[in-house]
Amino acid sequence: MVALIPQAAIDAIYRAESRRILASLIRLLGDFELAEEALQEAFAAAMEQWPRDGIPQNPRAWLVSAGRFKAIDGLRRRARFSASLNAIAAELEEEAREQPIGEEIEDDRLRLIFVCCHPALSVEARIALTLREVCDLTTEQIARAFLVSPATIAQRIVRAKQKVRTARIPYEVPARSELPERLDAVLKVLYLVFNEGYFASSGESLTRTELSGEAIRVARLLVELLPEPEAEGLLALMLLHEARRPARLSADGLAIALDEQDRTLWRRDLIEEGEHLVERALRSRRFGPYTLQAAIAAVHSEAICPEETDWAQIVGLYDALLRFDPSPVVELNRAVAVAQRDGPAAGLELVDALLAAGDLSNYHLCYAARADLCRRLGRRDEARLAYERAIELSKQEVDRLFLERRLASL
Amino acid sequence: MKYLCLVYADENLLHSLPESPRDAECLEYAERIHSSGRMLAAEALQPVSTATTVRMRQGKVTITDGPFAETKEQLAGFYLVEARDLNEAIQLAANIPAARVGCVEVRPIRELSPE
Asked: Which residue in A has a C-alpha nearest to residue B85's C-alpha?
């Protein structure tokens, strides 16, 4: 006889299982809102019954089953005013009779991720829906992280759910033939969420760390349920960057360049996990741009000091990355790596060619790179001009302060 | 569920690019959807220069030439299909030959309620 089940035990089950239970309820009930209500009602029922009867053998199956029947009851109550609700309730009841919840319920979280990240939804909607449904962040938390009003986020989520329902976006993991494109849409969302938490300068830093943490958590889940090389590559990329978080800002909140970071602060546990994933993804020979970016980050992580960096390997990886993503920003990064391998003059030649081509003529980091190379070549006047242009073009306070410090130290 | 696949393309390019579809290919594709039981209707349209726009305002009909808005791409044809869900509709739309030169807007059909 269990006398007392502390609230803490039920809370712990909620934290560990609520997303998985929600994912199953969405599959069973075919509707986000209905499933969310059912989830809350299932936990309310647990609070009432478990202290009396004890925690069931399989709490997850109990909660899914309870939620399902609560939803059917709810529909029945409302059905007095609507014939169509009655029909839905009857259909769900029939299904519940034919397919009761067994001890082994499917893991529906992968379905949930693919629906929330369906390419038929806008990227903003995908991000909001994923953080709300897969990560269980509140609309207020999401709004704070992205510096928009909670009403805007709430509206995005409502519209997205409406589109899922009205256009009938199916609740399924895509077929093999569609998988590469659909997985890309998922990875893009996770990548953007991570970057928002890692690079953006504004907003509360606590919320931002959480955001990166959520992206990593979902990526881990994705890799566990669907071990595709690019998913592993993206997870590795995020882990290798996250490993540097303790070293990337100074006490006064300024960004510290990679070559000036205290590498003893880097988190070895995350680096090891990241390196392991990169190697596995590379071995598959089905990797893509995320894996290559992760491989570049891994080469940096291996160097105990900046001078030990294997720049030749980094240039090679950028060459490979350019084949997937022939963008001027990748060219710029490659030019900086070439400067490290062959000297600043070689790098400057490439940077100037990029500036002459025009695509990056409003990109502050291109001028920052030029300034740095000119400084190393002793061309101080040119360096000053380039720093000034970079400061003029930079949009974020952190970048500007960093560049001003560089300019002052000329 | 019914979806309307609206085919948009720049009319000046629709029939002039190397990858432009020939009528025979379009007929063949329509026949394929038809034989899979998912075709409800499909037609190609005459160029937008033949279009007439009609409005009813305060009981009076106004008629203007051309489409309601100047756009780079014009409605060139449509397929009304029956699909299980959006993913199936997207697959049907992606294989419409004109999707190679234009684009296809996939819209779920709203059933009107009779009351």
From this structure: A168
Chain B residues 79-98 with CB within 8 Å of chain A: 84-87, 90
Question: Tens digit of pLDDT for each residue in B51-73?
Answer: 888 888 998 888 888 776 677 88
Cβ atoms of A33 and A165 within 8 Å: the answer is no
Q: List the beta bridge partners of residue B6.
A: B78, B105
B64: which strand partners?
B53
**Class of the CATH domain delimited by A339-410:** mainly alpha
Distance (Å, rounded) from C-alpha A157 to C-alpha A163? Answer: 10
Assess contact for B80 and B91: CB atoms under 8 A.
no
Do A170 and B86 count as a contact with CB atoms less than 8 A apart? yes
Q: Is the pLDDT of residue A3 over 80?
A: no
Read off the amino acid at residue A261: Q
One DSSP character per residue, A290-303 reads HHHHHHHHHHHHH-
Q: What is the pTM of this model?
A: 0.87
Q: Where are the beta strands (DSSP E) in chain B?
A: 2-9, 39-44, 52-57, 60-65, 74-82, 103-108
Measured between CA atoms, how close is B65 to chain A, in angstroms?
Answer: 33
CB atoms within 10 A of CB A304: 10
Distance of CA A57 to the CA centre of its chain: 34
On the CB side of A121, how many CA atoms lie within 13 Å of its CA?
33
Domain B2-108, CATH: 3.30.70.1060
